[in-house]
């Protein structure tokens, strides 16, 4: 293939890729704080219908049934009534690697008020656990294995990392695509708890 044909193919692929992203509208169908779907104005009861606060219709969190690193089956329903943060991660994702210690710190910060779950995407128990062992955070939160990548697919995942902030009624309050700093994590948890 000559250079002109190769360049033409690369340009066409890039146009199709960016066209797809634009057509999806950035963050896709799930609610996010960034697009205003979950802004404080809509969740603090300031909009009223017949004297009652009108809250947005949040998407329900997708159920899952996955093994933890000790082989125990864990379901989302195990945590009804509690605030749950679910992070989709992998060892090959540099942003995920940076975030995991912050998520462990988030669990320590809030203690029993939240459940922090990190779901590994399609990597072996050995690879996942040795990675968290090296970071010294294996005991700090709940790690689940998703060998078929079902959870990531169920949330319409297309970036890494992806994190759901789920309230006690299992509503997705925030669907964050991309990395976060610890201060942002704390702020988002507080917005659900308060």
Q: Concise description?
A:
By secondary structure, this protein is an alpha+beta fold. It is built from six helices and nine strands; from the N terminus they run ααβββββαβαβαββα. 28% of the residues are buried.
Question: Could you walk me through the main structural features you see in this protein, from its secondary elements to its overall organization?
Answer:
- The protein is of the alpha+beta class and 194 residues long.
- The protein has one domain: 3-Layer(aba) Sandwich (Glutaredoxin), CATH 3.40.30.
- Helix content is 37%, strand content 22%.
- The chain contains 6 helices and 9 strands.
- The strands form 2 sheets. A 7-stranded mixed sheet has the order 4-3-7-6-5-8-9. A two-stranded antiparallel ribbon has the order 1-2.
- Strand 1 (48-49) and strand 2 form a beta hairpin.
- The longest helix has 22 residues, at 3-24.
